[in-house]
User: What shape does this take?
Amino acid sequence: MSLVEIKDLHKSFGDNHVLRGIDFTVEQGEVVCVIGPSGSGKSTLLRCVNLLEQPQQGQVFVRGEDITDPDCHLDDARKHIGMVFQQFNLFPHLSVLQNCTVAQVTVLKRKPAEANEIARANLERVGLTEKVDAYPAQLSGGQMQRVAIARALSMDPALMLFDEPTSALDPELVGDVLTVMRKLALDGMTMLVVTHEMAFAREVADRVVFMDGGVIVEQGPPEEVIGNPQQERTKTFLRRVLDPTHVEPT
Ligand SMILES: Nc1ncnc2c1ncn2[C@@H]1O[C@H](COP(=O)(O)OP(=O)(O)OP(=O)(O)O)[C@@H](O)[C@H]1O
Ligand SMILES: [Mg+2]
Assistant: This one.
């Protein structure tokens, strides 16, 4: 059974038909990177996987359970999915440690001592042992993003969703976050990552999915999709992102 299975997913905002029939799966332990132009529906797709957006048509199965079924216990399903956004969404009034414990206690009903222990272990995993008592305002963007990752990991997710986790960061801070993500992938975490970091996708992804205009245009191993794309739209996109100074002939 696939960890995530998406069948004929359609999502519109008003008359803007954003997702136009998406079919795809994520297997246990797989790292899938989603690439594509701005507005192609990448974030919307990710948000449908934990039902932050309600699709109009189609189904999303997580561990075999149809989370688009109105009878599904959404809170239970969501517990197993960690999400890391471009903006870190930390609680500004809570310390780093508290940011990583609050949902463990309220949602998973863990005892505070156990939650603290798990949070500290995950903060160590992302290299932030010294910052447990700091507040978000005292951290760099890269550190805040690593707290957001530790917070998500503290919920023992079966799946981690990342939506352009490095695109709000200063260039010199990107590497630390990608290093943490690379380590997670090596540890066997199942990850669905929207990213513009082609080098990362090439190195870490088991599969790359190229989206354009609300459909999957092409998918496969990174050496194929990034290294030797077959579709014209993929080639055009890659020329643009790999060489931003490139001007398309008119
Ligand atoms: N909550 C919303 N309400 C209305 N329209 C939305 C909403 N979210 C997304 N859209 C629209 O859906 C389309 C796809 O947006 P989406 O954010 O999924 O694209 P994306 O591929 O993630 O782009 P980017 O690379 O810029 O993040 C866009 O036209 C956008 O304006
Ligand atoms: Mg987006």
